[in-house]
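INFO  loader      accepted 1 record
INFO  loader      residues=408
INFO  predictor   begin
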Amino acid sequence: MQLPETGIPRKTLLAEMTERKQQDADWKGARTFSLVYPASDDVDELLAEANNLYLYENALNPLRFPSLRQMELDVVSMTAGLLHAPEGHGGCMTSGGTESIVMAVLAARERAKAERGVTNPTLVAPYSAHPAFAKAAKYGGLELVQIPLDVDHRADLAAAEKLIDERTALVVGSAPNYPFGTADPIPELAAMAATRGISFHTDSCLGSFLLPFWERLGEPVPPFDFRVDGVTTMSADVHKYGYATKGASVVLHRDEEHLKKYQRFLYTGWPGGLYLSFAMAGARPAAPIAAAWAVLRYLGETGYVELARQIRDAVRGFQAGIAAIPGMRVIGEPIMSVFAFTSDSVDPFGIADRMEQRGWCLDRQNDPDAMHMMVSPRHLDVVDEFLADLREAAANGGESSDREARYS
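INFO  predictor   done
INFO  writer      dumping C-alpha cells
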C-alpha cells in the first residue's frame, strides 16, 4: 500500500475498517480468553468517554497538562494502597506490563551496580516468568538465569538457592504466572534476595487488580505483595483486571528513593531544556491514564468485588466442567482466574482446533501441551455453552491438522 494521492472519504474509510474488523476475535461475545478484559457495557461506555476526553493530550509535560499528572499520581496511589505499599513508596504509570517489568529490571541493575558493585549482572527468574523479563535482560545487558519449576509448576526453591549469587541483580517471582496461573513462593524467594541485599520483584501484572478482591471474597490468596518483607518492586496492569483500556500499567517501588535514583531518567545535556521521564516513553498517550483513573473510581471496591465474584463463579464452573470430561484436567493449582488444562487421552491442540471451529479462541501452550484460559466477568454467561462444545470436541478425538500452524 502507498500513500493515496488524494484523501479517501471518511465514510469509505470507516466502512473498510468495519469490514476488516469482522476478521477479528469476538471478545464482546466472550469468545476469547486473553488480550481483552471486558467488564460490562457501562464500563465500556465510561472508558470510551474518558478516552475521547483526553484523546489528543500528551502526558510528557506535567506543567502543560497538570490534570494528567494528578491522575497518574492518583492511579499509582490507589494501586499502592491495594498492594499494601508502605509509607515512602514510589511509582509511575507505563504503557503495559512489559514496560513496567523492563523498568523494574533496569532499576535493579542500577541498584546492584551502585550498592554492590555488580558489573556483570544476572536476572534470576522462574522458567514460567513472562518473556518480558527475557526482553529486559537482553535490552539491559543482564544474563537471564531460569529457575526450574517444581512438580506444582512453581519456582523450585532448592534450585533458586543455588542460582542466586553475588552477580544477581534481581530475583523474580510471579503471582500468578501466565502459563499455569500458579503463584511462586514469594516470601521464600524474597527472603533469599533480601539476605544478600538483592532486589526482588513480584510480577503481579495479572493479579494486582484481582487478588485483593479475591481475598475479600474469602478465597485463599498466598502472600505476594508489599506485606512480604523483601519485595522491593511490583508490576500491576490496570488494563487487565483493572478493566482500563490498553496502555495502562503501574510499576511500584517500596522505596521512592530507589525510583528516583535508579529508574528516573533526567537529562540536561542539550539545548532543549530539562528532559525528565520515569519510564521508556517520552511522549505518552493521555487517554490510558484518564481511562485508568476513571474506571478505578467508577467501580470502587464494591464494584471490583462484584466483578471478582462473577469471575470466581465462572472459574468454578469451567474447572468443574473440565474435570468432569474423561481424560481432561486442570494443570497445577491456579490461584485465581488464569489456568491451563489438557487431556491425557486426546491431543489438546486438536481439541483447541475444534473449539476454534466453533468460534472459541483458546490459546495454546507447551511443556506440557495445553489450552489456556483467562476468565473475565462476561464469561459467566457462556460457561454452559463452552463446556458443551468442549465435551463434544474432546469426544471426537483425533490429531490436530497442523500443530505448528495452530500453536499460539
